[in-house]
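Annotated sample (chain length 690).
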Amino acid sequence: MKDTICLEEKLLELLESGYDCRRGTQHSFEVLYHLSHLRENLTGWLPIKAQETVLEFGADTGQLTGALIRKAKQVVCLEDKEQRGRLIQVRHGQAENLTVHTGNPWKILEKEGLGNFDWIIAPALLQQAVFFFPGPCPEAEALKAILRYLAPGGHLVLTADNRFGLKYWAGAMELHTGKYFQSLEGEGFGYSKKELERILEAGGCQQVQFYYPYPERWFPSAVYSDARLPRSGELNQNLRNFEGERLVLFEEEKVYDRLIADGRFPEFANAFLCVVGPKTEEQILYTKYSNDRAERFCLRTDIVKTAKGMEVRKVPLSEPAKKHVRDMKDWEEVLDRCYKKNHISANRCELRGDTACFEFLEGRTFEEHLDELRRQKDYAGLTMELLRFRELLTETLKPEQRPFEKSGVFREMFGDPAFSKAYEGAPVNNLDWIFGNLMETKAGIQIMDYEWTFPVQVPTAYLLWRALSLYLNSREDIKHLGLMAQMGISGEEEELFAGMEHQFQLWLLQGTVTIGAQYLATAGRTIPLWQMVEAAKKNRIQVYTDTGNGFSEAESRWEKAEPDKQGLIRLELHLPEGTKALRLDPAENPCLVNVSRILGELGGTYPLAWTHNGRELEAQGVLYTTTDPQILIPEVVPGTRRIYVQMTVEELHPDTAYSCMELLNRVRKAERFYESRPVRWLLKLRKALR
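Output written by the structure step:
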């Protein structure tokens, strides 16, 4: 309780001081969890209308409230903790359409007579139900109770963690218990998709639409639906262990791609968002947030199903971003005039207020085409298609190209790279002339997205580099093909263009600390599988016994070999009857071993002779450069049932071991040289002459 009060006091102090999480000066998961603007991404996309009312049931510290009060006519927040209710008031106190009640939320609903609501946002309803409702299924009882406060035709919004979310299989801890694999074992507060479906049905929820926040529900960057599931390569931001350490047992992106191909993503999504109620007139099937950057570029991209069909919308998320979105209509006209000379068009744009609406194009992107060739391992075909892309880009921009000169705007956006050759470039450029934005449709080739269009001249070669660089970024299997060189981009140019891109990304952020940067500064450590395997291999020794059939894995065992404070390993080995010889493998890597003693016990102790497959370093011990170091005890006196070993084992990096061996060989060579008869004779002669 004391820790909670301290946290709330800290949050209150930060809010009163005007703290902005975008600046990232507080490296704390708790602060990020409660105050990050990205928390609103979970529900900020919901199609709440200006005349509708919203009940936020369990508002916590108001992480989701801001987006709700910007949309709805009236928002009522229920929060059981008084201190957190105060935080909501401080955080959103300027809103005239906000009412906050603190105390038992169910009693407040009964007592206050708040009426029915068009939307009820209840993120923690299912997880908290057990504290308010008895019986075998408290979640279903909570649903029945909350639905009484929903207006006819209204919507209830619930969220839950997926107990079978891929992150748990890959090694993330269960957030609430802080233990590995508990979610998979049935503990914690998560639900499988089938469990949720059963609970919703039992609770009287007749119409339910499932959505899938990604990467999870704390700081989602995208929300998918059953009508628009993720595509291969999209799920590539999977490390989100802000709350503590995690294991990394496999590459989640690759596993997601296989699940997507198999149609099983909904079963393994990390989180669910359920909308209970009739389908709205316009359905948002997918939303992607781009609000982790400078405010004037913050927007949301929605794929919307309307009565007329599908369309894509760019929605500004801040006042400064409205101009950025409105400018897209102007760029459509500019780019269309430029591109049509090469039979390419810009996706049609229509402004509706401050929202830019685009035609939903159907066809195959150039990226999908390249990926198909990549899956077939048709690398010659892939290279030919890249050359075709280069020709398409250069021919399209050729009529507009002029000798490139650095302008003030260029330096502001891209820095001041020291080019060693002359370039050409158009005066206006769509920097996102990338493979994923180029689509072949029935109407011809179209540029789908041209948000990053600016009146700035850049080298056309930079646009080519940018497209290929973004494509190669998550495709390790083709990085060795030398595609940049085949596109005519030298190593020096790669370095220069990478510097330009870095400056451009900083310019887009304008001081914003991204969630990725927050992760690096805040998150717990990640422990990859290979590191765990390496750690498991340490402090153990494999013991082989020969009882007449030679050494074999079947007649071997592992012995713990924990060194003491002085680094000494002391082993007491019990031998099976009939043991004739023994082999000890002290490590599975190059190492330095110093054996103090090896004794057998037979009435008393006796020393055992041993050999090895390393090189002796006199007092330092035996140096092994092999990954299969061995200590061989070729003769064990019959009847010996116990052996005592005392030694030190120091594992070495292979380069260190080989360097030591090389040095030892040189020393031995020098010793042999000085001990040779001619050298000894010369030394005697030299001494006599003196």
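Annotation: The chain has 22 helices and 36 strands.
Annotation: The chain has a mean pLDDT of 93.
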